[in-house]
Amino acid sequence: MQNLTALLLSLSILLATSHASVQDFCVADLTLPAGPAGYSCKSAANVTAADFVFTGLRKGGNTTNIISAAVTPAFDAQYPGLNGLGLSIARLDLAPGGVVPFHTHPGASELLLVVQGTLVGGFVSSFSNQVYVKKLVKGDLMVFPQGLLHFQINGGGTTTVAFASFGSANPGLQITDFALFANNLPSVLVEKTTFLDDAQVKKLKSVLGGSG
Predict the structure, then answer these.
(1) Per residue in 72-99, is it b (16+ CB within 10 Å) or e — as a string?
(2) 19 labelled binding-site residue
(3) Of residues 156 and 14, more confidently modeled
(4) Residue-range domain boundaries for the chain
């Protein structure tokens, strides 16, 4: 009986503590740096309706670049009201021939919805390097599991628009090509780790802004 009483008391304290820690929201205070758990909360007295609205996805991004594509994120850094809520979204605009190269989101899975045009999406599994590729048309969805290398390509003749939702307010992004060739890692090390020759590595570094 004594043990049961102690257990019930512990549970009541735990539940009371958990309830006390719940808040409706934690709008990001962008004047402070983000930590592993996200941004600190803005003072409730300074929160406005504008913190919960984002208008940056109304227009397409500029696709005049090396990949003929634009990704417009609505993550916690751009959309403070998402902070701590475990979700976010981005707009993808791909001109004809445009590509979002192999990349990963270490913090979340991605669910992609095509709303205009067509694209080919694919990802590579980590346990067998199995490739999953599919052509998507307007209205189609494709999921890209967290942390796996994936890509999107517009092989059609018109601009493609898609929206990618994520299970994190900050899913993170690392584009493989830029990670390899847009840095100052000595070319000899890049060559050893990629099996590319010196001329190929230096050409890619030149195109993507790397050095070394």
Answers:
(1) bbbbbbbbbbbbbeeebbbbbbbbeebb
(2) no
(3) 156
(4) 64-173, 182-208
Q: Is 191 annotated as a binding residue?
A: no
The reply, when asked if residue 150 is annotated as ligand binding, is yes
Percentage with pLDDT > 70 across the chain: 90
Sequence-distant (6+) residues with CB within 8 A of 30 are 39, 77, 80
Going by C-alpha positions, the residue among 152, 37, 174 that lies closest to residue 98 is 152
Sign (positive/negative) of CA torsion 180, 186, 187, 188?
negative
- CATH dotted code for 64-173: 2.60.120.10
Q: In what order do the strands lie in the sheet with 69-74?
A: 69-74, 88-94, 160-166, 110-116, 141-144
The overall pTM is greater than 0.90 = no
Q: Residue 60: which residues within 8 A CB-CB, separation 6 or more?
A: 70, 72, 91, 93, 159, 161
- Number of neighbouring beta carbons within 10 Å of residue 181: 23
- Distance between CA 102 and CA 181 in Å, rounded? 13
